[in-house]
Design goal:
The complex is a heterodimer of chains A (about 270) and B (about 300).
Chain A: H1 2-23, H2 27-47, H3 51-69, H4 75-96, H5 102-109, H6 117-146, H7 148-153, H8 158-180, H9 182-199, H10 203-228, H11 232-269
Chain B: H1 2-7, H2 16-41, H3 45-64, H4 69-87, H5 92-120, H6 125-132, H7 143-169, H8 171-176, H9 181-203, H10 208-222, H11 226-250, H12 263-293
Amino acid sequence: MNTWIVATVVAVVAGATGFFAVMRGAAFASHALPQGAFAGAAGAALIGASTLLGFGVFAGAGALLIAWLGRRGRHDVVTALAFVLMLGLGALFLSMSTEYAPEIYSLLFGEILGISRSQILPTLLLALVSLGAIAVVYRPLLFSSVLPEIGEARGIRPYRMEIAFLLIIAITTTTTVPVVGALLMFSLMIAPAAAARSFTPSPWRALSLSVAIAVVTIWMAIVASYESNWPIGFFVGVFGAGSFVIARTWAAWQRRQVTKTQEVVVAGAG
Amino acid sequence: MSVLGGVIAPGFFSNPIVQTALVVGGVVAVVSGLVGVFTVIRGQSFTTEAISDVGATGGSGAYLVGVSALAGFVAAAVVSAGVIEMIGLRRPRGRDIATGIVLGAALGFAALFLYFDTTHTSTTGASITILFGSIFVISSSVVPTIVGLSALVLAIVVVFYRRLLLTALDSDLAAARGVSARWVGLGYLLALSLSVALSAITIGAVLGVALVVGPAATALHLTKRPGFAFALSGLIGLVAVWVGILLAYDSYYWPPVGRGWPVSFLVVALIFSFYVSVHVATQHAFKKKRHIETDDGESGPVCH
């Protein structure tokens, strides 16, 4: 039962955040931050602190680092470098610790089927914070992402929006990664959101659809993982890709229909 | 002389493992730095990262079925680079999303392979080695392969140099001039995949992207002239790798004593430091230039 609650919460947050990530073209940052933050967990384990805390700290620091360097540097490069630095630190921490922690595997790929009751509350709280933050910045972030110049004229500073956005990803990451794993959380964010965009241009509907697809994806993944005993991350990645392909195929088919209708109209008029 | 002796721990140059590492690392650093300049100009750092991760998946899969991990890596890297390049012929933003989707699926398979690996074999360290790598673990039998592949990448870059540059900087102009996008694209993705594979051998799949794009980005921050950027990029990469190897060797004397810090981390830390230093150093010049160009620097009300 715990699994379903946590999974749904995680999917909702991932879907919502992913919507913005896809719109801003921040797929790389969505991939980089969770993986980089994993290093923080390794570091925390090294000094005996809470891995979740280490995670959160690194995620936040990474977000700020990318925002700072990204002001002038090429965005994709600074994301890559910040990300790789954090991972390098993770390698360092891992090499210093004497035990090979099986935690590491679950941090990377998720351990959703083994969620304990004690994890529900922190996950829920963090999810609420994340969703709250999204609700607060929804309008200005949407504006700034789609029409940056006009947004700037209206007093919305793009740099602030960038920081806010990246921090939201950081919080989302910290919420979901202990559950679905660093490597696959990003897939849960990007694939449903990208698929949703192919179905509808309206932002509000795309956001809702993104959340819906994310939830369905993770439910299916849980069932599949339970049946086959294969890691849940595998199914998230594959189902996510599948939904994206379906969405794109559908969109292409729709376009063909529209063109056909247009041809008929033109033929009728001419 | 004693200062040098203090910096370089005893036995450094005579150690055969170190010698191999210096040669391999040096060659790979220079080659990656060259390819990296094109990659940074094209804004394809994510693609590089994706190729590296997919390659690692391929390597893991190959290892599972008993095939050479390097072959699996290169094969997976080339195939994924090809797929991404084909998708990427449209808008860059769409390409990033597509890259992300492909990467997500591939990482899913990586999770699967690792699961099989840990449940069917007794070694759990193999995956960590593929992912994080260590230049000190390279056996001398692999060195000829590495040098050969590096030479191949170098050859591609030299032969396609002008066309690659033109395509990266202005694809429309390149098309107008009759530069065959297909062949150039193919050559480039082969060079990139091989560079990624080579970097992965050197400092691990997960960190390899740093060696490809880091020095190049630093160089491009310093100069806009292509020839100079290539030279600088190779040089920065070379310095980072060699100093990293040196520090890793020295670090056996650092806390925690007797273990040494992973060379991959040190190399990446150096690359990152170089980039940030240059970034900050050029900030001053950038700010001054902007101040001169905008008179009052105020944005007035927008009139519609």
